[in-house]
Amino acid sequence: MIFNLEGLTVYFPYEYLYPEQYRYMLELKRALDAKGHGCLEMPTGTGKTITCLSLITSYQLQNPECGKLIYCTRTVPEMEKVLAELRNLQAYREKHVGKASQIMALGLSSRKNMCIHPKVADEGSRESVDARCRRLTASWVRDKHMAALANEEEAPENAPELCEFFEDYEKEGPNAILPPGVYTLADLRDFGRKKGWCPYFLARHMITYANVVVYNYQYLLDPKVANMVSRELERECVVVFDEAHNIDNVCIEALSVNLRQQTLDGASRNIAQLTQRIEHVKAHDERRLREEYTRLVNGLAQQGVLDRARSDQLIANPVISEDILREAVPGNIRRAEHFIAFLRRFVEYLKQRMRGGSVEQETPIAFLAHLQQTAAIDGKTLKFCYDRITSLLKTLEVVDTDDFSAISLICDFATLVGTYEKGFALILEPYDERYPNIPDPVFQLTCLDASYAIAPVFDKFNSVFITSGTLSPINLYPQLLGFKPVCSAALDMTLTRECLCPMVITRGADQQMVSTKFDMRDDPGVIQNYGRVLIDLCSCVPDGIVAFFVSYSYMEQIVSKWHETGVLQQVMRRKLVFLETQDVVETSLALDNYRRACNCGRGAVFLSVARGKIAEGIDFDRHYGRAVIMYGVPYQYTLSRILRARLEYLRETFQIKEADFLSFDAVRQAAQCVGRVIRSKADYGLMVFCDKRYNSHDKRGKLPKWITSHLHEQQLNLSTDMAVAIARQFMRDMAQPYDRAGQMGKSLLDQNSVNAMAAAAGFGPPTIGPPPPPGGGG
User: Fold this and answer.
1) Which residue from 260, 277, 419 is spatially nearest to 350, judged by alpha carbons?
2) Tens digits of per-residue pLDDT, 258-286?
3) Is the pLDDT of residue 317 over 60?
4) Contacts of 227 (CB under 8 A, 6+ apart)
5) What is the DSSP string of 329-343?
6) I want to staple 493 with a disulfide (CB 3.0 to 4.6 A). Which of 442, 448, 706, 748 is the partner?
7) C-alpha torsion sign, points 667, 672, 674, 679
8) Do 445 and 257 touch, CB atoms closer than 8 A?
9) Alpha-carbon distance 320 to 582, whole Å?
């Protein structure tokens, strides 16, 4: 379908368009025209990804001054899904416009997901793959290799090993480019094998030329990664954060550091290793240390000691501020041996703090004052630690950065605590509250303000969009992330049949109230009524049912009780039962068997946990999920000191009440869980909220509009037997043949309907093809 949207020719690769997709495109276009940011909620299963891609790539085609699209996802499977949609769209555009519409689009991930070197790719963990790669590609390793080959007396086999894929890529120089097209990670690996080039460094290089780049949130939000990968992106880029309902938590994690006793012990070992290396370099090649000292005297940025663009950049600064780069490194840490002595003193101070037997909480200012008083360490010096360790590791020609992760983490901690006065808290917990007799101290530097990590993104780029199926209440996100959107909308789902049926069960058939509130969760009556809900729904809902609990411990407790009381046996007469565990492999196997049980008609129940892997990334479309049960309200652990510090900060800084934020966070997780059940308008499913608290407007009002618009009065405050009666009727109605023709003009728009809407708005037929070059032809 090709249509005119307020003067923009939009290429949409499907025959029909949903009305909410049309409204979503309108909001996007107006924000792009205004060069502003946006916050958009669109119901799950209504084609958010292809809508976003169609509009923005069409906008790029018609407005060449528009920069590249940076599409951020949370997981690699989501990235692959986006690129598959984009490939479909690109094939459609080329069919109608020809080669003038060709684009370059690619996905970028870690070396672990992209490496094709047989020895490196088999390393296992991401960190070990990174370290092994640097061992083969670092500039000084390559220099040593060339020097060994040039030395006729030395045997060639004694030369350091290099990566042939990286070497072949480097030999090509500027000619190492990808032809236009859409490249998934698998495509890049195949292309790399075919050409003999390293796909990871090729993809990093091609970001400059690409029209669309798809990668993980961390490549923009985590400054350690963003400084290396996303530094050269131009201001005109359009950034989209998809599935961004938890983006505030991602931002906070990017700037938080936890130190344990093992970290400090590892840092002490690293300091001893670095001391030995410094002595060795002093004895054999002191010139390197002298040159580094000279560079540091003259400042970091001016002398290029921290060249962010270098491919062998080991680690990058965890602080967003550019101020550090404009200052000279303090004199007391310029010499390598002085810096090591400084780190040794700082690590000893942290060890001494960890020996304390009581819980401590303080601000960065209080921490720095105590540090100055106890260890005579200046706070200003701390903020240079990360860049100083980077410089030292490069000078000492260290490639196994994995071995020095402990001291890097200490320097990360030091730099953050030395830079930020507000928006952070330091919390020392000497033991885990669940095991108070086992010492397990942890020193946590936690970021309390999500806007710190994302502010550079909003400042740098003209248009940044936060989008998801569950962003309600939508006005809270601009507050939490510190930006002013030019468009903010929560779109409803247009339906000709009620294919989703949310309901709130507040009591069992015996009229006893049900809830996972602390004072009720262990009540045998509540546990039995929860079991009854599952048994009765299994008797009237075909195929798959997914049940979510508030935590792993509560799920284990309930399942154990159900086993003792015979509830599980009754469920298994009708459906097989599978569980999510904290082991990823076990969970994947259980999920695979769950799908097989649904496929063969046996039916199955999957017991899962809110905030877990299943709740965040797995879709239960069609017969894999005909009902979702949310047992309880998935609040965070409210006794967590980190959470309490953040709540206090939100109250003082943004005037957001603690109860409001906790409810908002819990309900967005519940909405994310129940949203797994419906993935298109032809799909259908029950959404069962099992807790009396969902009946209050405070909780219900925070659910997305596309759910609450179908939550009618007769579906509230239900007992188990009433809910089962509604479920039976709903399943009977959904079993009738699906009339697609009846949707035309209402929940489905064809080409004529869209053209009529454009004409009503005063716009003519679309102009196919790119715009003529400025100045026109003669």
Assistant:
1) 260
2) 999 999 999 999 999 999 999 988 888 88
3) no
4) 308, 316, 317
5) PPGGGTSHHHHHHHH
6) 706
7) positive
8) yes
9) 34
